[in-house]
Amino acid sequence: MRKNKIMQGVNIPRHIAIIMDGNGRWAKKRLMPRSFGHKNGMERMIGLMEHAFDLGVDYITVYALSTENLKRPKEEIEGLFNLFRNHFKQYISRVCARGVRLRAIGDISLLPEDIQKSLRESEEETACYEGKGICVAVGYGSRDEIVHAVNTAVEKGEKVTEESFSKLLYTAEVPDPDLIIRTGKEVRLSNFLLYQAAYAELYFSEKMFPDFSDKELDKAIIDFSSRTRRFGKTDEQIKNKK
Ligand code: IPE
Ligand code: IPE
Ligand code: MG
Question: Of 28, 61, 64, 174, which is least surrounded by CB within 10 A?
């Protein structure tokens, strides 16, 4: 683990989830097509993942495409799929080569078959890795995920507990996020990890995603580190670890 000086002594979240918003506006400001923003966003995503793992983060979840995003104009969706086809595997294998397991979370059946296949291959190739993980949320919607989990429980005819229910979600094997970051100025969750976010710390950045640098991530983590997570308890209980 390589930590720069400013990050020494900082409490590093185990799991960071990022709503990568603002690619379109970033491109528009540069009089470029939205696809240019998505390409730069994907490159930034990889850089951020590498930086986060260097800092000692164990899990990174990135919100890449929501169920609602699939209703965007056809050219934009096709552009995103082509970006995935042409670059995703090559980029992500660079990160996974460090011993990181990739999981796709979401309703993958909403994606073209070749992309489903490519995601499944990446999942299989990295399934041997334990401890560090990336979740790529594609065709992901939290409500869809919850409804899917409820239907599975109903089919099994089993009553659920909080714990058993979380095992029916797409994120089954992954701990809840400690820190959720959203770029792009909006202050909302847009159907992301609604169940898992119960006690996550939230951080909102005014930066458009392609401008969210490694330093900006450091800032978010330093802010996270300064917060007291009480999980409903009192300060005294937290201090005395009761
Ligand atoms: C986020 O950026 C990436 C995806 C949703 C695929 P946007 O495409 O939402 O960018 P803005 O919010 O329009 O700037
Ligand atoms: C959230 O961004 C989804 C992703 C980043 C993949 P959106 O751009 O879709 O969110 P809204 O529509 O502004 O809430
Ligand atoms: Mg957006």
Answer: 28
- Phi/psi of residue 234, each to 5°? -95, 165
Cα(124)–Cα(36) distance, integer angstroms = 30
pLDDT at 73: 98
Pick the catalytic residue from 21, 58, 144, 178.
Answer: 21
CA gap 14, 46 in Å, rounded: 18
Question: How far is Cα 27 from Cα 36, in angstroms, rounded to an integer?
Answer: 6
Atom of ligand 1 nearest to the CA of 26: 14
Structure tokens at 67: 């169920």
Task: For 161-226, give the DSSP string.
Answer: -HHHHHTTSTTTTSPPPSEEEE-SS--S-TTSSTTTTTT-EEEE-SS-GGG--HHHHHHHHHHHHT
CB distance 190 to ligand 2 below 6 Å: yes
- Whether the pLDDT of residue 97 is over 90: the answer is yes
Task: Name the pLDDT band for 67 (thresholds 50, 70, 90).
Answer: very high
